[in-house]
Design goal:
about 30% strand
């Protein structure tokens, strides 16, 4: 390879790294802003009459269950619900190649949010059966489509369910539509950390993960592993503190790069 070609490759790598840094900074600013906005919206959520508390609790429980399952799935599959090519298999799990040489196949945060929201709707519809309340005197009518908006922030993930209902009992009628769940799943932080790892892998070959552990383990409870010469795992043990009883994992595959090391005790 002559000097001219080497110079051209170096320029392309530098441009790619600059673009990844710019995207990471924009997404970090976005996450901080939306987290503050959603905290305000969460506090202003609709208060229901006490007799409707069992229905509200049931819907919230279904939403939490559906959201947790979808968020665990998207993390275990590298930010994807529907895994695109190229992909590989690790311990029976399909995983996308998020880095192939100098080419990043990293999903945008909005793509992750959209796919996860669709999966939450699917799981919520399978969970929710309001007919059980009709047996105790409630007349419940669904007034519109089920919609989910999800916002992935640094330390939490916010899920907003639009589920318009008319609930009647006797002469009383109440209309409700918005339910909000905030889960302490640090998908945003793991997303930015793994994006930073990809950026550094492109810029430095071979790349030793261990040299940047302070950047990846921001809560002193996050380990990073490189397994099977192709799999990178971010494992957030803080999930145990929130009674999830399992580690939250964000994992993906890389190829045509040299990676080594990890961050663990």
């Amino acid at each position: 390879m002559n000097l001219k070609k080497r110079g051209q490759i170096t320029i392309f790598i530098i441009i790619g790294v600059i673009l990844l840094i710019a995207v990471a900074l924009i997404l970090l600013l976005r996450s901080t802003t939306v987290e503050k906005e959603l905290e305000v919206e969460e506090k202003a959520a609709q208060e229901l009459p006490s007799e409707l508390a069992p229905i509200e609790s049931y819907i919230q429980s279904c939403l939490e269950k559906a959201s947790e399952e979808a968020l665990w799935q998207v993390g275990a599959q590298g930010g994807y619900i529907n895994i695109p090519d190229p992909k590989t298999t690790f311990q029976g799990q399909d995983l996308p190649y998020l880095l192939d040489g100098t080419i990043s196949n990293y999903p945008t945060l909005s793509e992750i949010e959209r796919q996860t929201a669709d999966k939450i709707v699917e799981k919520f519809e399978n969970c929710s059966d309001l007919s059980i309340f009709e047996k105790i005197g409630f007349n419940i009518t669904k007034l519109g489509a089920t919609q989910v908006n999800i916002t992935i922030a640094n330390e939490s993930t916010f899920i907003k369910l639009t589920y318009p209902l008319s609930i009647k009992k006797g002469k009383s009628e109440t209309k409700i539509d918005i339910f909000i769940v905030r889960l302490p799943i640090r998908l945003g932080t793991l997303y930015y950390s793994s994006l930073e790892l990809i950026k550094k892998t492109i810029a430095t070959q071979p790349y030793n993960i261990a040299q940047d552990c302070s950047s990846y383990d921001k809560n002193q409870l996050t380990n990073v592993y490189f397994k099977d010469n192709k799999i990178i795992q971010f494992m957030d043990y803080s999930a145990y503190q929130h009674e999830f009883f399992q580690t939250y994992i964000f994992q993906f595959a890389v190829r045509n790069v040299e990676v080594m090391g990890g961050c663990f005790d």
